[in-house]
Amino acid sequence: MTAWLPLVPLLLVCLGAFALMVVDVFAREKPELATLSTVILFAAAAVAAVMATGKGIAAPPHGVAPYLAVDTMAQFFNATICAGAGLCALLAGGYLHEHGLERGEFYALLVLSAFGAMVLAAATDLLSIFIGLETMSLGVYSMVAFRRGSHRAAEGGIKYFLLGSFAAAIFLFGSALIYGATGHTDLAGIGQSIHDGDALIRLVVLGMLMLIVGLAFKVSAVPFHMWTPDAYEGAVTPATTFMSVVVKSAAFAVLLRVLLTCFGDQLSADLRTGWPGVLAPIAAITMVYGNIAAAQQASVKRMLAYSSIAHAGYILVGVVALHSADPQLRQMAVSGVLFYLAAYTVSNVLAFGSLIALGSYGKEAVSYEDLAGAGRRYPLIALPFVLGVLSLMGFPPTAGFLGKWYVFSAALAGDDSLLWLVIVGVLASVVGAYYYLRVIVYLFMKAPEPGAPVAVPMRSGYVVAALLLSGYFVVKMGVSPAKYIDYALAAVGKLS
Amino acid sequence: MQIEVGDYLALASIVFGIGAIGFLVRRNVLVQLMSIELMLNSVNLMLIAFNRYMPANHAGQLFAFFVIAVAAAEAAVGLAIVISLYRLRKTVHSDRADSLRH
In whole angstroms, what is the distance from residue B99 CA to residue B102 CA? Predict the structure, then answer.
């Protein structure tokens, strides 16, 4: 029985989703579904958070082992993913009710997508990566197109679906090439075969590039980001939040695992000969482009979409830092990425949640103009917004600042071959400060145009709860980061 | 004439290329969906061909079955989204879906 113990978070979410679908049939009040899905996801997050310290980790049952890892790193990602998805469920509980979109399937889709994300983050075989990726994506496509009568939702949905499936096909072709080159589909076997030198190296390189392209689509790195702004803007805001926190965490988890396990050898992980040489320029363009494009947006939701592209760039800096052969430096880089993803999750939920809270039925807050003067009229709702954008900007002492700090210092820890990348990152985040501060300026220093529509906040206990929880963690991770970074370091464990 | 694994690889690459070009060039969403199916099927062909030459386990064939199953699920979700777009726009051309461009 102990063998099944480490799978408890996964089983909880999976069975919980089925239970949700049954309850949906009988429930009269749809907000009850929001409560139920939040409870399921937070329970799974709590169990996973305990297991990330190493408690209850045992060898998984027979048949699971080659496909899913249940190590502490997987549990850390489970905790981040479930907490992020739970916060999104809370936001959905307020948003869908307010905007008259209450249909129970949204929660089932959300929880099942979270399940797919957990599978993806734990997958150790190309087959289970593919299944996790698709389970997650199919749910998210439907959530994006959820508002059926809306042109924008259908359009965002179709764009995301087409490009997402295209990326999945490229990823699959890469997987097939690697299978042909090494004879293995499990990541450890592929790594071993490349290490021993009995793989067809040309096919491996081609396959590796295609895997990276497929995953770069999912993390929305430039130049594979075109779907991001449209899908983020077209989707209902809780689904946007889900895409930006959960999908991103899971995609980075699998990127880390593939690069470390398959291509972690000296030659493939070298800055000149291997994948870090490909990812470093992608990281640089992503940071620069994301920030510059975000600064030009008139819609706050679209600005946050481009900001999520920029953040993918910062996180990629941490991934590139894995080029060092020293296990201790690698451990530092991976734990930096883990910390960043957790910090980004709570900060982004805070920003999107405040945007949701500021709009009510028919008066959704979308553009900067909608926010004008809202801070003076409703200071209690503007406050979490300010905290959220400050954290996304990387203002000390918030969680976002320490995330950037750990990632950048990991990149500089070994030698200074990545100094240029960190300089680009710091300069790009200076550009970022412009559009984040613009939110605060509009909230507090602008008066609305006479006669312009004014955003009226909604009243919802769900949204307030999500804001309180994420706000608590943004501050907590900012003022006492040592506890959380130690936690991430322990979850990563010793890397070879 | 003996058919080698390299021939399968070449054929699969050509089919994948046709699919990728079709996806990028055509603007009819249904044709784009078909192009994606073409790409997925080229992957299946390659997986099975590789498995034929590496018969130690059935990883390739197993993989191909999952690809087929997932492709069916993907088509279901994709067509549902296409229908919801068609109801609003009376068209299935992805160029006409441009209300999000500013």
Answer: 8
